[in-house]
Amino acid sequence: MATIASARLVHRAVPGKLVLLDHPLFKFGALAMGIGELLGDKMKSAPDRTVFLGLLARVASAGIAGAALAPRGRERAGAGVAIATAVPLAYLTLAARKRAMSKFGQTPSGLVEDALVAAVGIATVAFFTRQR
User: Fold this and answer.
1) What global pTM score does this model have?
2) Alpha-carbon distances, residue 104 vs 17, 45, 99, 111, 112 (angstroms)
3) According to the model, what pLDDT value does residue 19 have?
4) Cα–Cα distance for residue pair 29/74, rounded to 1 Å
5) Is the distance from CB of 21 to CB of 14 less than 8 angstroms?
6) Quick one: CA torsion of 123, 50, 32, 74, rounded to 10 degrees?
7) Is residue 22 over pLDDT 80?
């Protein structure tokens, strides 16, 4: 969501029709939540991403992002695909992160994970958006 909000701030258009993406509170809120996520998952007290509230947030943000990046008129299908991808990936990436944490530590593994996720997010949003 932070990547899509950033894209909207630099005037990139998304294919899906979502009024929410143009509301300043949403844009800046998504950016703040993205920064919070980057900082928060390095803390030892951070809960697993597969706890109920973590999955709920993941489902909501994946649904919004999938709808926004889907072709016009296919927003529901885009949301469904994104949610169906996000939930199993939460479990797979948690398992990979736990293995990496045991080998490299919490902060280094988190930084590498964040870099990979950010790169994939930026590439995906760049591919599906266009300059307005």
Assistant:
1) 0.85
2) 42, 18, 9, 11, 10
3) 67
4) 25
5) yes
6) 50
7) no
CB neighbours of residue 30 within 10 Å: 23
Rounded to the nearest 5°, which phi and psi values hold at 98?
Answer: -65, -40
Query: What's the angle, vertex CA 89, arms to CA 86 and CA 95, rounded to 5?
Result: 150
Tokens coding 22 = 């143009």
Residues 6 or more apart from 38 whose CB is under 8 A from it?
A: 114
Average pLDDT over residues 51-70: 92
CA-closest candidate to residue 70, choices 19, 117, 14, 23: 14
Give the Cα separation of 72 and 59 in Å (integer): 21
pLDDT for position 106: 87
Distance from first CA to last CA of the chain, Å, rounded? 19
- pLDDT by residue (tens digit) across 76-99? 999 999 999 999 999 999 999 999
Token pair recorded at residue 57: 């947030």
The answer to whether 85 and 31 have CB atoms below 8 angstroms apart is no
